[in-house]
Amino acid sequence: MKINKFNSEKKLINYIDSYNKKFDKIFLITSPPIINLYPFIETLNTKIIICEEGERCKSINQYKKIIECLVAKGCNKKSLIIGMGGGTITDLSGFVASSYMRGIKHIFIPTTLLCMVDASIGGKTALNFNNIRNLIGTFKNPEEVILYFNFLETLNKSELVNGYAEIIKYGLIMDDKLLELIEKNISSLIISSSNKHIEHIIEKCIKHKIDIVRNDQFDDNIRLILNFGHTVGHALESYYNYTLPHGKAIIYGIKVASYLSYEDKSLTKADYTRIDFLINKLNLPKLKISDLKKMEKLIKNDKKNINNQLYYITLNKIGKAKIEHNYNKKKIINALKIL
Ligand SMILES: NC(=O)c1ccc[n+]([C@@H]2O[C@H](COP(=O)([O-])OP(=O)(O)OC[C@H]3O[C@@H](n4cnc5c(N)ncnc54)[C@H](O)[C@@H]3O)[C@@H](O)[C@H]2O)c1
Question: Using CA of residue 62, residue 110, residue 129, residue 100, what is the dihedral sign?
Answer without folding.
Answer: positive
